[in-house]
User: Fold this.
Amino acid sequence: MVMSFVFAFIVGGIICVIGQLLMDVGKLTPGHTLSTLVVVGAILDGMGLYEPLIDFAGAGATVPITSFGNSLTHGAMAEAEKHGLVGVLSGMFEVTSAGISAAIVFGFIGALIFKPKGNID
Amino acid sequence: MEKEQYKKLEQNVTPKPPYLKNVAKAFFVGGLICTIGQAVSLFYMIFFNFTEATAGNPTVATMVFFAMILTGFGLYKRIGQCAGAGSAVPVTGFGNAVISAAIEHRSEGLVLGVGGNLFKLAGSVVLFGVVSAFFVGLIKYILVTIGVVSW
Assistant:
Protein backbone atom coordinates (compact mmCIF):
# COMPACT_ATOMS: atom_id res chain seq x y z
CA MET A 1 0.00 0.00 0.00
CA VAL A 2 2.65 2.52 1.05
CA MET A 3 5.03 1.16 -1.56
CA SER A 4 2.50 1.83 -4.33
CA PHE A 5 2.73 5.55 -3.46
CA VAL A 6 6.53 5.40 -3.45
CA PHE A 7 6.63 3.70 -6.87
CA ALA A 8 4.07 6.16 -8.26
CA PHE A 9 6.20 9.06 -7.02
CA ILE A 10 9.46 7.71 -8.42
CA VAL A 11 8.20 6.56 -11.83
CA GLY A 12 6.04 9.67 -12.34
CA GLY A 13 8.99 11.82 -11.32
CA ILE A 14 11.33 10.07 -13.75
CA ILE A 15 8.93 10.54 -16.68
CA CYS A 16 8.74 14.26 -15.84
CA VAL A 17 12.55 14.41 -15.67
CA ILE A 18 12.72 12.93 -19.18
CA GLY A 19 10.33 15.70 -20.29
CA GLN A 20 12.46 18.33 -18.57
CA LEU A 21 15.62 17.03 -20.27
CA LEU A 22 13.91 17.10 -23.68
CA MET A 23 13.09 20.75 -23.01
CA ASP A 24 16.44 21.86 -21.52
CA VAL A 25 19.00 19.67 -23.32
CA GLY A 26 17.00 18.87 -26.46
CA LYS A 27 15.80 22.50 -26.74
CA LEU A 28 12.23 21.39 -27.55
CA THR A 29 9.22 23.58 -26.86
CA PRO A 30 6.70 22.23 -24.32
CA GLY A 31 4.37 21.40 -27.23
CA HIS A 32 7.05 19.34 -28.99
CA THR A 33 8.00 17.66 -25.70
CA LEU A 34 4.44 16.55 -24.91
CA SER A 35 3.85 15.35 -28.48
CA THR A 36 7.08 13.32 -28.34
CA LEU A 37 6.09 11.72 -25.02
CA VAL A 38 2.65 10.77 -26.36
CA VAL A 39 4.21 9.08 -29.39
CA VAL A 40 6.68 7.27 -27.12
CA GLY A 41 3.76 6.04 -24.98
CA ALA A 42 1.97 4.74 -28.07
CA ILE A 43 5.06 2.90 -29.32
CA LEU A 44 5.81 1.40 -25.89
CA ASP A 45 2.28 0.01 -25.73
CA GLY A 46 2.65 -1.41 -29.25
CA MET A 47 5.62 -3.39 -27.96
CA GLY A 48 3.63 -4.43 -24.88
CA LEU A 49 5.87 -2.57 -22.44
CA TYR A 50 3.52 0.07 -21.00
CA GLU A 51 1.04 -2.28 -19.31
CA PRO A 52 3.73 -3.83 -17.06
CA LEU A 53 4.78 -0.29 -16.10
CA ILE A 54 1.19 0.49 -15.00
CA ASP A 55 1.09 -2.75 -12.98
CA PHE A 56 4.28 -1.66 -11.27
CA ALA A 57 3.78 2.07 -10.77
CA GLY A 58 0.00 2.63 -10.91
CA ALA A 59 -0.72 6.35 -11.22
CA GLY A 60 3.00 6.96 -11.77
CA ALA A 61 2.39 5.56 -15.24
CA THR A 62 -1.27 6.50 -15.82
CA VAL A 63 -1.07 10.20 -14.86
CA PRO A 64 1.82 11.36 -17.15
CA ILE A 65 0.79 12.20 -20.71
CA THR A 66 2.58 9.09 -22.05
CA SER A 67 -0.43 7.12 -20.80
CA PHE A 68 -2.60 9.01 -23.31
CA GLY A 69 -0.64 7.47 -26.20
CA ASN A 70 -0.73 4.14 -24.39
CA SER A 71 -4.50 4.05 -23.92
CA LEU A 72 -5.21 5.22 -27.48
CA THR A 73 -3.07 2.39 -28.82
CA HIS A 74 -4.50 -0.05 -26.30
CA GLY A 75 -8.08 0.65 -27.36
CA ALA A 76 -7.12 0.46 -31.04
CA MET A 77 -5.34 -2.89 -30.65
CA ALA A 78 -8.00 -4.47 -28.43
CA GLU A 79 -10.68 -3.65 -30.98
CA ALA A 80 -8.50 -4.69 -33.94
CA GLU A 81 -8.09 -8.08 -32.30
CA LYS A 82 -11.87 -8.54 -32.25
CA HIS A 83 -13.03 -6.83 -35.44
CA GLY A 84 -10.00 -6.67 -37.70
CA LEU A 85 -8.60 -3.62 -39.40
CA VAL A 86 -11.56 -1.27 -38.87
CA GLY A 87 -11.18 -1.82 -35.13
CA VAL A 88 -8.02 0.30 -35.20
CA LEU A 89 -10.25 3.33 -35.80
CA SER A 90 -13.34 2.31 -33.87
CA GLY A 91 -11.47 1.26 -30.73
CA MET A 92 -9.15 4.26 -30.61
CA PHE A 93 -10.98 6.27 -27.94
CA GLU A 94 -12.46 3.33 -26.06
CA VAL A 95 -9.99 3.30 -23.17
CA THR A 96 -9.01 6.95 -23.00
CA SER A 97 -12.56 8.31 -23.15
CA ALA A 98 -12.60 9.91 -19.70
CA GLY A 99 -9.52 12.08 -20.15
CA ILE A 100 -10.72 13.68 -23.38
CA SER A 101 -14.34 14.11 -22.34
CA ALA A 102 -13.29 15.52 -18.95
CA ALA A 103 -10.98 18.04 -20.63
CA ILE A 104 -13.74 19.20 -23.01
CA VAL A 105 -16.51 19.37 -20.39
CA PHE A 106 -14.38 21.02 -17.69
CA GLY A 107 -12.88 23.37 -20.27
CA PHE A 108 -16.38 24.54 -21.18
CA ILE A 109 -17.51 24.83 -17.56
CA GLY A 110 -14.29 26.62 -16.66
CA ALA A 111 -14.84 29.15 -19.44
CA LEU A 112 -18.34 29.82 -18.07
CA ILE A 113 -17.45 30.34 -14.41
CA PHE A 114 -13.92 31.77 -14.42
CA LYS A 115 -12.73 35.15 -15.64
CA PRO A 116 -9.42 35.45 -17.47
CA LYS A 117 -6.68 36.67 -15.18
CA GLY A 118 -4.02 37.28 -17.78
CA ASN A 119 -1.82 34.68 -16.10
CA ILE A 120 -3.74 31.45 -16.42
CA ASP A 121 -1.89 29.30 -18.93
CA MET B 1 26.26 38.14 -40.65
CA GLU B 2 26.03 34.53 -41.78
CA LYS B 3 23.28 32.35 -40.39
CA GLU B 4 25.70 30.02 -38.64
CA GLN B 5 27.65 32.85 -37.10
CA TYR B 6 24.43 34.24 -35.73
CA LYS B 7 23.50 30.84 -34.33
CA LYS B 8 26.84 30.65 -32.51
CA LEU B 9 26.46 34.17 -31.17
CA GLU B 10 22.96 33.38 -29.99
CA GLN B 11 24.20 30.26 -28.21
CA ASN B 12 26.90 32.22 -26.41
CA VAL B 13 24.50 34.94 -25.28
CA THR B 14 21.64 32.69 -24.15
CA PRO B 15 22.14 31.73 -20.49
CA LYS B 16 22.46 27.99 -19.89
CA PRO B 17 19.43 26.59 -18.05
CA PRO B 18 20.25 25.31 -14.53
CA TYR B 19 19.96 21.64 -15.59
CA LEU B 20 20.25 19.97 -12.19
CA LYS B 21 17.89 22.37 -10.43
CA ASN B 22 15.27 22.03 -13.19
CA VAL B 23 15.52 18.25 -13.17
CA ALA B 24 15.14 18.11 -9.37
CA LYS B 25 12.10 20.38 -9.44
CA ALA B 26 10.49 18.44 -12.29
CA PHE B 27 11.09 15.17 -10.41
CA PHE B 28 9.53 16.35 -7.15
CA VAL B 29 6.53 18.19 -8.57
CA GLY B 30 5.84 15.48 -11.17
CA GLY B 31 6.25 12.77 -8.56
CA LEU B 32 3.95 14.59 -6.16
CA ILE B 33 1.20 14.97 -8.80
CA CYS B 34 1.46 11.24 -9.57
CA THR B 35 1.29 10.42 -5.85
CA ILE B 36 -1.93 12.43 -5.60
CA GLY B 37 -3.12 10.48 -8.65
CA GLN B 38 -2.28 7.23 -6.86
CA ALA B 39 -4.45 8.31 -3.91
CA VAL B 40 -7.32 9.07 -6.34
CA SER B 41 -6.81 5.65 -7.99
CA LEU B 42 -6.99 3.90 -4.62
CA PHE B 43 -10.16 5.84 -3.83
CA TYR B 44 -11.78 4.55 -7.05
CA MET B 45 -10.54 1.00 -6.43
CA ILE B 46 -11.84 0.86 -2.87
CA PHE B 47 -15.19 2.66 -3.22
CA PHE B 48 -16.20 2.16 -6.87
CA ASN B 49 -14.93 -1.37 -7.67
CA PHE B 50 -12.39 -0.35 -10.28
CA THR B 51 -9.41 -2.63 -10.79
CA GLU B 52 -5.80 -1.52 -11.01
CA ALA B 53 -6.05 -1.67 -14.81
CA THR B 54 -9.30 0.28 -15.15
CA ALA B 55 -8.76 2.87 -12.40
CA GLY B 56 -6.52 4.97 -14.67
CA ASN B 57 -9.46 6.30 -16.69
CA PRO B 58 -11.49 7.93 -13.88
CA THR B 59 -8.24 9.01 -12.21
CA VAL B 60 -7.25 10.99 -15.29
CA ALA B 61 -10.69 12.64 -15.40
CA THR B 62 -10.41 13.61 -11.73
CA MET B 63 -6.93 15.04 -12.23
CA VAL B 64 -8.26 17.15 -15.12
CA PHE B 65 -10.98 18.42 -12.75
CA PHE B 66 -8.30 19.48 -10.24
CA ALA B 67 -6.48 21.18 -13.11
CA MET B 68 -9.63 23.17 -13.93
CA ILE B 69 -9.94 24.47 -10.37
CA LEU B 70 -6.24 25.42 -10.15
CA THR B 71 -6.24 26.98 -13.62
CA GLY B 72 -9.39 28.97 -12.92
CA PHE B 73 -7.85 30.56 -9.85
CA GLY B 74 -4.61 31.25 -11.71
CA LEU B 75 -2.59 28.87 -9.53
CA TYR B 76 -1.47 26.37 -12.17
CA LYS B 77 0.66 28.90 -13.98
CA ARG B 78 2.45 29.68 -10.73
CA ILE B 79 3.20 25.98 -10.17
CA GLY B 80 4.32 25.69 -13.80
CA GLN B 81 6.72 28.60 -13.55
CA CYS B 82 8.83 26.81 -10.96
CA ALA B 83 8.15 23.17 -11.91
CA GLY B 84 8.65 23.20 -15.71
CA ALA B 85 7.98 19.73 -17.08
CA GLY B 86 6.92 18.56 -13.61
CA SER B 87 3.56 20.23 -14.09
CA ALA B 88 3.41 20.03 -17.91
CA VAL B 89 3.96 16.29 -18.40
CA PRO B 90 1.23 14.95 -16.04
CA VAL B 91 -2.26 14.91 -17.51
CA THR B 92 -3.08 17.98 -15.38
CA GLY B 93 -0.82 19.91 -17.78
CA PHE B 94 -2.96 18.70 -20.68
CA GLY B 95 -6.09 19.78 -18.79
CA ASN B 96 -4.50 23.13 -18.01
CA ALA B 97 -3.70 23.70 -21.70
CA VAL B 98 -7.32 23.01 -22.71
CA ILE B 99 -8.95 24.94 -19.89
CA SER B 100 -6.70 28.00 -20.02
CA ALA B 101 -7.36 28.30 -23.77
CA ALA B 102 -11.11 28.06 -23.10
CA ILE B 103 -11.07 30.77 -20.42
CA GLU B 104 -8.75 33.02 -22.40
CA HIS B 105 -10.97 33.06 -25.50
CA ARG B 106 -14.29 33.29 -23.64
CA SER B 107 -14.58 36.98 -24.55
CA GLU B 108 -14.75 36.06 -28.27
CA GLY B 109 -17.94 34.07 -27.67
CA LEU B 110 -18.83 30.50 -26.81
CA VAL B 111 -18.81 29.14 -30.36
CA LEU B 112 -15.94 30.89 -32.11
CA GLY B 113 -13.95 31.72 -28.99
CA VAL B 114 -14.25 28.73 -26.66
CA GLY B 115 -15.25 26.19 -29.31
CA GLY B 116 -12.67 27.25 -31.85
CA ASN B 117 -9.73 27.57 -29.48
CA LEU B 118 -10.34 24.77 -26.96
CA PHE B 119 -7.61 22.59 -28.45
CA LYS B 120 -5.36 25.43 -29.60
CA LEU B 121 -2.55 24.36 -27.26
CA ALA B 122 -3.42 20.72 -26.57
CA GLY B 123 -4.41 19.84 -30.14
CA SER B 124 -0.93 18.64 -31.11
CA VAL B 125 -0.98 16.11 -28.28
CA VAL B 126 -4.32 14.71 -29.49
CA LEU B 127 -3.19 14.73 -33.13
CA PHE B 128 0.12 12.95 -32.60
CA GLY B 129 -1.40 10.58 -30.03
CA VAL B 130 -4.15 9.47 -32.40
CA VAL B 131 -1.95 9.28 -35.50
CA SER B 132 0.80 7.31 -33.74
CA ALA B 133 -1.77 5.00 -32.13
CA PHE B 134 -3.26 4.42 -35.58
CA PHE B 135 0.06 3.44 -37.12
CA VAL B 136 1.13 1.33 -34.15
CA GLY B 137 -2.24 -0.48 -34.29
CA LEU B 138 -1.91 -0.91 -38.05
CA ILE B 139 1.63 -2.29 -37.83
CA LYS B 140 0.62 -4.67 -35.06
CA TYR B 141 -2.37 -5.84 -37.12
CA ILE B 142 -0.13 -6.51 -40.14
CA LEU B 143 2.45 -8.33 -38.00
CA VAL B 144 -0.27 -10.52 -36.47
CA THR B 145 -1.79 -11.22 -39.90
CA ILE B 146 1.48 -12.40 -41.38
CA GLY B 147 2.13 -14.37 -38.22
CA VAL B 148 5.20 -12.63 -36.77
CA VAL B 149 3.62 -11.86 -33.38
CA SER B 150 0.35 -12.67 -31.62
CA TRP B 151 -2.05 -10.23 -29.89
